[in-house]
Design a protein that fits this description.
Layout lengths: L1 E2 L2 E4 L3 H12 L4 E4 L13 E5 H6 L12 E11 L7 E11 H14 L3 E3 L2 E8 L5 E8 L2 E6 L2 E4 L27 E11 L10 E4 L4 E4 L6 E8 L2 H14 L5 E12 L8 E2 L2 E3 L17 H16 L8 H29 L4 H10 L5 H4 L10 H17 L4 H21 L9 H13 L14
Length: about 450
């Protein structure tokens, strides 16, 4: 039986990054991937990453002509339901071929000393006499292999196969994602009927439809449509989007389907010899669903803590790893929780209200949407302007009382969650009481899947 310091289940971006960083720290790392190397991450061709985030985390660089790089752009805008009153933002984005970039990250991890086994399916965890994880069993070519280790990282994506296999009393939530907790995405690659003099290099997003027009490779652009609940819901939204938003005449050349989690993160990521990361920990940006770089904030903290805890052959207990939870929830954790609560309720409005609020630049304003997720602070004049126009909207019939109630609930609950996550316990003591209060607050938030975009148009 082989022995490793760390075994990681799932070799997409999250697993590859953690493998690279732990190997750089001198630990022996095994990366298990259920798919073959040439089938790795097959759902989408093109995906986007923020260039500054790639540089911040030291991800492998790509360049034109390497077969991975597709394009770069920085102009984007969030538009009203009818494509009016755009709220612009500038963020340098790199478009890449996802499969090829995942393979590059696999090789990047191996370069640092990690080992990878493809077509290896996780079967079960193994435990020592003390009841703590001490390894796992995986299947390869019909044979079961057992490896020992001190730390298992679940980077298996939406199925979260390791997290969900833990004993009920292991200190980690085992929830499974339902269709209401998953953002289903359809990408339609398109060619414009009237050819452009220059390449299409910008991104426009329609918040009401959760839809976007963005650059592509091998076609002129792509139309993305997302919805919680299932692909049937996505298609309903797309038909309404197509009728409502006047895009340049085009033809669809191919269609891709994929999924990303849209659920709060587990209240704790760690336990004895275990950590959950990436989609297995629901680490996606609430405003756009992107998960590749969203997970890296937690992973950088985890590498820092785990490498210190595991020095000199020590076992990473729940107590020793706990500061990963605390440090994450003091930063990105509280921001994502607040934003998810805000968006879950604030989307509950009609097309008429959407157009009015975009036009008046309140709630869906340049200041808020142009900086979404970046800790924007609103001034007294911002709140006063919002109040004035909300009253005007009620009087003129552009906003319904129920829509105003949803906005107020979103703001209040979002603020409460921020304050609660700031009180995340420093040790496992007090965690159960904290989690119970968090559960009550989350019950007050709305879910994206509970609002039917088509029926409320």
């Amino acid at each position: 039986m082989k022995n490793y310091d760390v075994v990681i289940v799932g070799a997409s971006t999250a697993g590859s990054y953690f493998a690279r960083r732990m190997a750089e720290k001198g630990f022996s790392v095994l990366l298990l991937e259920k798919d073959a190397r040439d089938k790795l991450s097959p759902s989408y061709d093109i995906f986007h990453m923020g260039k500054e985030e790639m540089e911040l985390h030291g991800l492998p660089k790509v360049k034109e002509g390497d077969g991975i790089y597709a394009f770069e752009f920085e102009d984007s805008a969030i538009c009203s339901v009818y494509g009016n009153h755009p709220k612009p933002s500038k963020l340098k984005v790199v478009g890449m071929h996802k499969h090829d970039y995942c393979v590059l990250m696999n090789d990047w991890a191996v370069e640092a000393g990690a080992e990878i086994v493809y077509e290896a399916s996780f079967k079960k965890l193994t435990y020592g006499e003390n009841g703590k994880i001490n390894g796992l069993v995986y299947e390869k070519d019909g044979n079961e292999e057992t490896v020992s280790c001190r730390l298992v990282a679940d980077c298996s994506g939406i199925p979260a196969v390791v997290r969900r296999s833990l004993p009920d009393d292991y200190g980690i939530e085992k929830f499974a994602l339902t269709p209401k907790d998953i953002f289903y995405v359809t990408l339609r690659y398109i060619d414009f009927e009237e050819k452009r003099s220059s390449r299409y290099l910008r991104s426009d997003f329609w918040l009401f439809f959760k839809s976007w027009l963005a650059p592509s490779e091998g076609s002129d652009a792509l139309i993305g449509i997302g919805a919680c609940g299932g692909f049937e819901t996505v298609e309903k939204v797309y038909k309404l989007f197509e009728k409502t938003v006047k895009l340049p005449a085009h033809k669809v050349t191919r269609i891709e389907n994929g999924m990303t989690p849209y659920h709060r993160a587990p209240y704790s990521f760690v336990s004895d010899g275990f950590i959950a990361m990436g989609d297995a920990a629901c680490l996606t940006k609430p405003n756009c669903g992107e998960g590749c770089t969203a997970s890296l904030v937690l992973e950088d903290i985890a590498v820092d803590v785990a490498s210190a805890v595991m020095a000199d052959g020590k076992y990473p207990t729940r107590e020793a790893l706990w500061s990963i939870n605390k440090r994450y929830n003091d930063t990105q954790g509280k921001e994502f929780a607040s934003l998810m609560a805000l968006l879950g309720s604030i989307i509950r409005h009609s097309a008429k209200a959407n157009e009015f609020l975009f036009r008046k630049d309140v709630i869906f304003s340049c200041k808020l949407l142009g900086s979404m997720g970046n800790g924007i602070e609103l001034s007294f004049s911002d709140y006063a302007k919002t109040l004035i126009y909300v009253v005007v909207g009620l009087v003129t019939g552009n906003i319904k009382p129920a829509e105003l109630k949803a906005v107020i609930n979103a703001i209040v609950t979002s603020g409460k969650l921020t304050a609660h996550y700031e009180k995340y316990p420093n040790t496992p003591d007090g965690y159960e009481a904290w989690a119970k209060e968090a559960e009550l607050l989350w019950a007050q938030t709305g879910k994206v899947a509970e609002w039917d975009t088509v029926d409320n148009f």
